[in-house]
């Protein structure tokens, strides 16, 4: 779970410092750069697995693939000045990890702070783009974890997710050699002693991304946690695709493998499995949408073609494949399936979940997205998976349906720019009476979001005279 994010110099995020809880809705007008928050989170996730170059290529808006320029990631990246990106993330990591060889271990701390500083180095050629280089990388335990977490949570929840012995352990650090300019990324042992050092100038990737065994369980836990941060962009073509028997059984970020995922969830290996109950819960939740009259649903396996296909039966008896549903209904169905999948954990970022949803169905969609997030008033488990959800929206309907404490208001404000002067950059403001508000820090009041809470000008919300019901 990502509990705090600090970003400096990334796209239009000149200086952002924000707290997150289990569920967060970022609200603001189009074009403010709300999606850049998701880009920063996604970039951190890529840095945990990929090289610096590949991580830069995978972030949205860098030419959509190979050939993008890493300067796209920097604030004012094409002007001649020193380029720096600093991103720090405070997180709660799993209390047990498993490496790629199946070895399990327990981290010595679960409340961690990871920080990375990246620079830009110009190419020696005239036309080739430059490259990112690693300037600093740190991973530390956050002492006094309970007081650092500010979102409301039950003691039973905190007892389960926190290993808090109030130590100040260091797992990764950065030093320079005797006052020189050469930087070294250090890996520490369980006694905080430097176990090995690597010159930062030669690193093509973060040290965190190389820690893939359970020999360093706390670093591995941070890596695995960051890997689970993903942007969910459900595409109708992917949602409509049947699944073969050899494909994945987990829903992809674009919506692929929906039938196989539901089949796995409904047919676990335990002998006591009752698939009809799972199908009934998904059908019942789907029926929350007005205009969708679902009697039941199931995943059918075609042995001849070796395909899984999701079918629905309407109350009138008509049986339809799920691919016949509208785009908005398909997205809602995919989220219903995720709600049942206890194996789907981590951070989910969603852009404008209201897209394709009729205004009458907004309450059902907002409640479904909210229910995907873990309930911090209860202990985590199969009935309360450790999931976190962040959405962004410009919809007044979504804002009106959210608790103000769950809202962050996107605004563009003047901030100090690198090299002097001021520039307009994204700010995220918490509600002034919420747990996110900091003493002396900027906040928003209900008056600041009156545009989201009032009727639009010249709206016709009443029947004209002369018309009867």
From TrEMBL:
Keyword Ligase: no
Keyword DNA-binding found: no
Molecular function in Gene Ontology: ATP binding; ATP hydrolysis activity
Family annotation (InterPro entries): ATPase_AAA_core, P-loop_NTPase
Pfam families, A to Z: AAA_21 (PF13304)
Domain ATPase AAA-type core residues, every copy: 23-399
One GO term (biological process): double-strand break repair
Keywords carried by this UniProt record: DNA damage, SOS response
Gene3D superfamilies per the UniProt record, alphabetical: P-loop containing nucleotide triphosphate hydrolases
Protein name in the entry: Chromosome segregation protein SMC
Origin species: Micromonospora craterilacus
């Amino acid at each position: 779970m990502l509990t705090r994010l600090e970003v400096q110099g990334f796209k239009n995020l000149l200086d952002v410092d924000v707290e997150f809880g289990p569920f967060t809705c970022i609200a603001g007008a189009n074009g403010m750069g709300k999606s850049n928050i998701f880009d920063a989170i996604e970039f951190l996730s890529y840095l945990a697995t990929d090289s610096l170059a590949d991580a830069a290529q995978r972030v949205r808006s860098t030419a959509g693939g190979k050939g993008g320029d890493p300067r796209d990631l920097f604030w004012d990246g094409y002007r001649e000045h020193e380029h720096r990106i600093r991103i720090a993330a405070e997180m709660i990591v799993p209390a047990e990890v498993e490496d790629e060889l199946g070895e399990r271990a327990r981290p010595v701390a679960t409340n961690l702070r990871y920080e990375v500083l990246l620079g830009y180095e110009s190419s020696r050629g005239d036309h080739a783009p430059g490259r990112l280089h690693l300037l600093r990388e740190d991973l530390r335990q956050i002492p006094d974890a309970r007081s650092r977490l500010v979102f409301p949570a039950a003691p039973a929840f905190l007892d389960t997710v926190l290993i808090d012995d109030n130590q100040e352990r260091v797992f990764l650090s950065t030093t320079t050699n005797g006052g020189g300019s050469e930087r070294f990324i250090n890996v520490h042992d369980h006694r905080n002693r430097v176990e090995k050092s690597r010159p930062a100038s030669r690193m093509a990737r973060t040290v965190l991304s190389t820690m893939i065994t359970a020999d360093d369980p706390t670093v591995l836990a941070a890596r695995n946690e960051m890997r689970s941060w993903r942007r969910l962009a459900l595409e109708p073509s992917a949602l409509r695709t049947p699944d073969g028997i050899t494909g994945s059984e987990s829903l992809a970020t674009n919506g692929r493998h929906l039938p196989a995922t539901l089949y796995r969830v409904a047919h676990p290996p335990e002998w006591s499995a009752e698939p009809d109950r799972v199908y009934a819960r998904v059908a019942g939740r789907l029926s929350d949408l007005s205009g969708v009259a679902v009697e039941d649903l199931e995943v059918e396996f075609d042995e001849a073609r070796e395909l899984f296909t999701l079918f629905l039966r309407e109350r009138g008896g008509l049986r339809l494949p799920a691919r016949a549903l509208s785009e908005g209904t398909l997205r809602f169905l995919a989220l219903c399936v995720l709600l049942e999948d206890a194996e789907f954990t981590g951070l989910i970022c969603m852009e404008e979940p209201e897209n394709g949803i009729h205004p009458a169905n907004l309450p059902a969609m907002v409640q479904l997205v909210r229910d995907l997030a873990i309930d911090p008033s209860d202990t985590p488990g199969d009935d309360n998976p450790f999931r976190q959800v962040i959405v962004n929206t410009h919809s007044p309907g979504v804002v009106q349906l959210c608790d103000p404490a769950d809202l962050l208001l996107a605004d563009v404000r003047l901030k100090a720019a690198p090299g002097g002067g001021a520039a307009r950059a994204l700010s995220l403001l918490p509600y002034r009476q919420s747990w996110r508000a900091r003493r002396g820090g900027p906040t928003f009041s209900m008056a600041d979001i009156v545009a989201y809470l009032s009727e639009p000008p010249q709206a016709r919300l009443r029947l004209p005279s002369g018309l009867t019901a």
